[in-house]
Amino acid sequence: MAEGFKFSIEDLKKFVFLNINYRLGHDVKSKVLPKLEEMGGFEGVQKGLKTNMGDGIKESELQMRQQTYGKNYVEPPPLTPFWKFCWDALQDPTLQFLCFSAIVSLTVGLAIPEERVCYGYVDGVAILVAVAVVVLVGAIQESAKERQFRDLTDSASDELVNVIREGRQIRVSTREIVVGDCVVLSTGDIICADGLVFERNTLKIFEGALTGESNAISKGAYEFQEKGNFELPTDEDLRKFFPADTTMSLEEMKNVYEPTPHRTPLVFKGTQVQDGEGKMLVIAVGRNTYEQILLGDKGDDDAEDDESERSIMQRKLDEMTILITKLGVMFATKSCCAEVWDNNRDWMKIIHYIITGITIFVVAVPEGLPLAVTIALAFSVKKMMSDQNMVKHGSAVETMGSATTICSDKTGTLTTSMMTVMDCWIAGKPGKPEDMKGGLSTDLKELLCAAMTINTSEKTDLVAKTTRKKGSDGREVQEVVKLDGKTVVAYSGNATECALLKLVNFLFDYRGEVGALDMPYKKYRTEFPESMPGRSSITFSSKRKRMCTLVPMPAGSPQPFRLYCKGASEIVLGLCTTFASGSETKSLDESTRSDIMNAIDDFASQGLRTLAVAYKEFPQTPVTADGSLPDDVEQDLTLIAVLGIEDPLRDEVPSAIATCRSAGIVIRMVTGDNLSTAKAISRKANILTKEGEESGTEIAMTGEQFRQAVLFEQNTDHPEKFINQIEFDKIWPKLRVLARSTPTDKLVLVTGIQRSRLVIDAGNGNKQSRQVVAVTGDGTNDAPALKQADVGFAMFINGTQVAQQAADIVILDDNFQSIVAAVKWGRCVYDNICKFLQFQLTVNIVACVLATVGAATLTESPISVIQLLWVNLIMDSFASLALATEDPNKSPGLKEQLLNRFPYHRTAPILSKVMVKNMFAHAIWQLLILLALIFGVGDICQMGSDVNQCAGTPDLNLLFTLRSGRPPAFDNEWLASINPSIHNCIPLFSVSDNSSFINVTSLPIDYNDSGAPPFTGLIPLRDRGYCLKEEGGCGTKTQHMTMVFNTFVLLQVFNEINSRKIHNEFNVFKGILYNNMFLAVVIGTLGVQVILIQVPSINFGFGCAALEGWQWGVCLVLGFSSIPMNFLFHYIPYDWISLGKWAGELEDSVIDEQLNEKEEEAEKEEHAMHSGQPVHTVAN
Question: Are residues 610 and 677 in the same domain?
Fold first, then answer.
């Protein structure tokens, strides 16, 4: 080992992992202690690290130790530059395709004079503008999210801690702590590194964020619970604490089993000293601490721009975009202008066909998709903040809509992470705290509250929850956390004692601010301070399982001294002979004892920890001469109450889980708590149901049993790489509770579910073959699973920064209901994008067919380039705003609809059968109307007083009194096909064809020049630009073609209303009045359309002619026809429609590729960490 140290980083890591993986007493004895003995015991660890707890290390060794074991600080990465977000956004295949289209369109539009005059370059400019909008909106959104999250979690603290170096206690920065340091700990300290505590101490460390344990853990050399002093689990649960393949009998298991030790030596960075003092030997710092190993390489610098980070929907859209744009266009050749090759004419003709093809191509490309996704995500991300969801990665929103399972932590996620009195036995009967508030006599309430307050440490307190943030001057400041304007309560000190203080406040109906001096329990502390003369106590110990405090009573009390006692209910009850009932005491007979024991058993069956509170009065002080209380002072006590305490479920959890069930989402609880507590909580939360347990479809397991069943190899650094998928698939569909789990157990569970190909019947005939896994958690131990999950949720108020950095979404109010809100928004985003997709693809089909038919029959598109620009604006910007911003919190019934259906399959096509039916039905109807307008309206005749009037009798009468706006060449050939004697096509000049010229004599050439000789000869009827004018150019502004354009736009506007529904709903108007953005877009579109057509100069620029009233009436009726037709389309059967890759279906290989990319990235991180290369991690 370098520099003479016996232990490497890896040696110390292995020891830490052994302690994490094996926490039960019998496992510690068989797995952990042999390793500790191999290291030479605690003395050997000190010698191996060249230090000792008395003198510490030498100052001169700091640099050497930092080089060998690393520094205790991980530099946060710099904020991503804005240009990088823009560049990442441009990696979208759709945007790249659009950029190519724009460049081609711009080149043709600017290079060819005829196209330049007709503004042929405008479409290219419009596409580039659309791309710029998408890129900038996406980049601004990502940049804002990164800064917002950095502000939320940035607390790269540089606090001072006490260490012993060279025999002296000094204060140094946490960043200067090194392996081998002896750190002095005291109440309230946040531990700054991983270490060992093995000397005598009074430390109690709260490790709930790391292990899920609700209680503070005593620290020191291993101290095991004595046989007979602990209860054995039930036979069923006991088997789950041993490997499934064990050969031990049940009796042998009972003899071997030991619960977690009273004391353990390992302490972890980020945990908190709840009580006591002691010294810690540092064994890991910086990125080598367990906290940072769990965090890995997912910090706030994550870029979701990587291909592996694109959501499932985005990948489906990529596939569809490529398929849509593979459009072949066929053009027919017109006989009128195809006699012989003419360079001056035919080259331009070919270029015109190319331009027409590009126009069709531009219409076919769904440039609105990226914008719709961006708008939908930006809208939902903003709205989700009001639902207490802070989104770090936008793709997580849509992915959450497809979630099929949620693996949740218990402590702090499903529960409040605050021990609370839930049940009680008092005054001879069981009850709830609510019953105690109004049902107790004043004397008994005062007695109980005094007993709960006086007999607790004054270090225990209810305080305001605070968080550390950096101020404008860069210094770290404490900020009080408020929720809905009220200060959030936090526990300081022993959690069980805090629960008692909380009950005191509740019984006195306190509604003021936490921490205020008028809190009820503080009245007792003021009257009976710890420094009070005559006060004495016996502290709690694991052997006694109780504590007591004697205080002098004020004048006028029945007796001058009173002893308060609290502890394990069976122990304290055994010391009682009477119980308090109102203002009197009653004898504790066998019947009453039996009732109390039944209540204790009932509390225990609910997963409650029971605690008895008692008292005894003395006529004189029992304190001995040395100031201590004798052991026999706790005799003949009077029982006040038996309290059932637990870390309770959050109020919203049962209803939220019920909602998840109806939404087709399975909740699986993964916790470090013991099996009985975990099962009790899961039953209350409706995670485990009575029917499921009885039928065997819902089971609970311990982490040990789970690992033994599903892993090829045990006790590895990366167990997720050794999953036996066959065995795993036998367990996970039934697994609902995983108790006594290690941090890696949740990672194994998430990874295995993601890899599974098992087809699960989710109910209602809904089959799921690929699972989308969400993970919720608040602790450091949740970080690996949060990173691996498809979507990771972390709590903000009670969550650790490690969890928040590893998550995709941070729940700001720690409310499980907010996770349901994320599901709601995820499904809403998915549906909103599908609504826009249904609308846009309908427009694409109609526009492409129209442009193709125009190119094939009319030699030009019936809708000009500048008009297509306006249509694209409707398709893209306006339709995105209208359809991608539906708010499920406002539209009646939408929230329930979203949460009462099963999630979309992971690989399912993005286009549903209903959407395909609607698209093609409306496209066909629109094409019938538009083709009827093009070919069934417009009389063929000579131009009269203006281009819209006929001169004389028309050659061909069609609908309405309106002159044709079709190209003359087409109308001439149409007439010729009807009556061959009519040939209006002007032939190419030929001396032998008398119809191709006029023979004139003495024709004046210039009326202004009287000296110019008159012209005599043949004048060709077809000039050089004849065919070009007929087949290209800017076109003539006619009311006929304006009606076509107007009807096309109005059909799309009214079809936007139809597109609001994608699940074959009959009433498309439901909720429309609650979407102000939709109403504004529709009204705004109609208003602008009127301006484009009716206002002079503007209509000229858009190739339109002002319409008359009756013409507007016809267009509105035809446009509105899509609404009643949609009611008819509702009855068209659609089950026969076959979907596939063309509809956005993903293959399993795409999902596997995504999972493999995650695993490869994790391996790169591991390799970088072991090779000493820098790993980008966020400072804690």
Answer: no
Pairing of strands 405-409, 773-777: parallel
- Give residue-wise pLDDT tens across range 692-724: 998 989 999 998 889 888 988 876 667 888 899
**What dihedral angle (degrees, nearest 10) is formed by the CA atoms of 824, 825, 830, 832?**
110
The model's pTM: 0.69
- Judgement on whether residues 749 and 704 belong to the same structural domain of the protein: yes
Residue found by looking up tokens 């006029």 in the block: 998
Cα(996)–Cα(354) distance, rounded to whole angstroms? 30
Are 183 and 269 members of one domain? yes
SS (H, E, C) 660-688: HHHCCCEEEEECCCCHHHHHHHHHHCCCC
φ/ψ of 224, rounded to 5, equals: -90, 150
* Average pLDDT of the residues of the chain: 80
Q: Residues near 49 by Cβ (< 8 Å), separated by ≥ 6?
A: 5, 6, 7, 179, 180, 281, 283
409 is catalytic: yes
| Residues 436 and 557 occupy one common structural domain | yes
Mean pLDDT highest for which of 821-825, 880-884, 1115-1119? 1115-1119
> In 3D, which of 334, 218, 350, 205 has the Cα closest to residue 274?
205
CA dihedral 492, 496, 502, 507 (to 10 degrees): -160
Can you list the pairs that 705-710 forms with residues at least 24 positions away whose Cβ atoms lie under 8 Å? 705/239, 705/240, 705/241, 705/242, 705/243, 705/244, 706/731, 706/735, 706/738, 706/741, 706/745, 706/748, 706/749, 707/742, 707/745, 707/748, 708/243, 708/244, 708/245, 709/244, 710/748, 710/752
Q: Are residues 606 and 686 in the same domain?
A: no
Report the candidate in 278, 366, 253 with the shortest Cα–Cα distance to residue 317: 366
Is the domain of 718 the same as that of 800? yes
Q: Exactly one of 27, 409, 729, 939 is catalytic; which is it?
A: 409
431: which strand partners?
A: 424
- C-alpha–C-alpha distance, residues 178 and 186, integer Å: 19
179-212: pLDDT as tens digits: 999 999 887 788 889 999 988 788 888 776 666 5
| 748: containing domain | 389-415+650-814
